């Protein structure tokens, strides 16, 4: 019996229900916008940043552990969060916090191979960051964050709609098209819509929610969103080409080549970025680049 027939008698949860379930999960990335705001404020001190990190005890522990690791440790141990922040620097601290929060939410909501979502999210984030550094049209930290969180809706959909995945998979196999279109046909919404709704609920900047919603269909987005979307769309392509952590739906990503060329993302630029992303991802994940749980 086909998957299409098996699920014909059941109705998928609504978009509101999927988001409601996701928002009840205990390990959401909701602290990330607060951390971003304090890090971007030139008047913030190490103590101000520490006050945000202390809200999340696991994140505080990860911050201290990284600061006292062999790579960062020199001249004694960091005994408190403020010392750890001074040792790590704001950029490294933000990377740690962002990836740790996404990693933990994956652990609460993923049904796939442990670590794969976090691996692919990191590669997408690094790719968007590298492209932003080269072009100087989008702040690299904004591009990094967009890449890291743009697919969070996939975790929420997997958590709430797993019984409908065989039907989605079968439709893609039989009719072709993108995974997102099959989601809309079967569920009534896509993971991008879910992700955008969640980012808004967690008080992420509107630009990130818009980038998430239109990442796979950038020409439908408002004009002001296009610079970030160009970097994110290109970053997703680079990360998918790179390979680590790409799930089955990732390979049904529809690339808008004319859009990327319009923004200067030629094959040569993307190939050059791919080499840099490989090196950065390897330095971050080491032996966890291709398999295993990504631990923070």
Descriptive account of the structure:
- With 296 residues, the chain is an all-alpha fold.
- The chain has a single domain (12-288), classed as Orthogonal Bundle (Hypothetical protein af1432).
- It is 65% helix and 0% strand.
- The protein has helices at residues 3-6, 15-23, 31-40, 46-53, 57-67, 81-88, 90-109, 116-135, 140-149, 152-161, 165-175, 179-187, 191-201, 206-214, 226-242, 257-262, 267-285.
Q: Which class of secondary structure composition applies to the elements?
A: mainly alpha
Query: How many domains is the backbone divided into?
Result: 1
- Compute the number of strand runs: 0
CATH superfamily: Hypothetical protein af1432
SSE layout and pairing:
Layout: H1 3-6, H2 15-23, H3 31-40, H4 46-53, H5 57-67, H6 81-88, H7 90-109, H8 116-135, H9 140-149, H10 152-161, H11 165-175, H12 179-187, H13 191-201, H14 206-214, H15 226-242, H16 257-262, H17 267-285
Helix pairs in contact: 2-10, 2-13, 3-4, 3-7, 4-6, 5-6, 5-7, 7-8, 7-9, 7-10, 8-9, 8-15, 8-17, 9-15, 10-13, 11-12, 13-14, 14-15, 15-17
What key attributes describe this structure?
single chain; 296 residues; mainly alpha; Hypothetical protein af1432; disordered N terminus
Entry summary:
The protein is mainly α and 296 residues long. Helices cover 65% and strands 0% of the residues. The protein has one domain: Hypothetical protein af1432, CATH 1.10.3210.
